[in-house]
Amino acid sequence: MNYLKMEIDNKIIKRLIEVLDDLKKSLKDKNIINSDEPTEKEIDISGEVIKSPIVGTAYLSPEPGAKPFVSVGKKIKKGETLLIVEAMKTMNHVPSTKDGIVKKICVEDGQPVEFGQTIVILE
Q1: Is 86 exposed, middle or buried (0-12, 13-18, 19+ CB in 10 A)?
Q2: What is the DSSP string of 107-119?
Q3: Tens digit of pLDDT for each residue in 66-95?
């Protein structure tokens, strides 16, 4: 019985390869995104970089429609909340690691963030 399942799997795999080859031929002259290339944008990181401490969803304000915690050009103090990262229904405030002026906010409201991803750059 396992031999029969393996034969079916091999047929499916062979067919998938044929379909992908046909697709590749049909898209020969089209611009295709190469999955080997990094998709994250290059970020100018001259300044103090604040990174996400956890994986989750970034929110720039305490609630929908409210004023954002920070904006570009705003002077902030060490420990001041920059944004919230929600993980497993818990709202985690991300504090500034030093005093400075917000140079760039590298995430959008409601955007998923990874651990260690640059979220804010300070001058």
Answers
A1: middle
A2: S-TT-EE-TT-EE
A3: 999 999 999 999 999 999 999 988 899 999
pTM for the structure as a whole: 0.60
- Asked if 57 and 86 count as a contact pair (C-beta separation under 8 A), the reply is yes
Write down the pLDDT at residue 72.
92
SS3 70: coil
Architecture of domain 55-122: Beta Barrel (2.40)
Q: How far apart are CA 80 and CA 68, in angstroms?
A: 13
> 56 has which bridge partners?
113
Residues with Cβ within 8 Å of 18's Cβ and at least 6 positions away in sequence, in order, are none
Q: How far is CA 85 from CA 4, 29, 48, 120, 123, in A?
A: 49, 42, 19, 13, 22
- Sign of dihedral through CA atoms 66, 67, 72, 75? negative
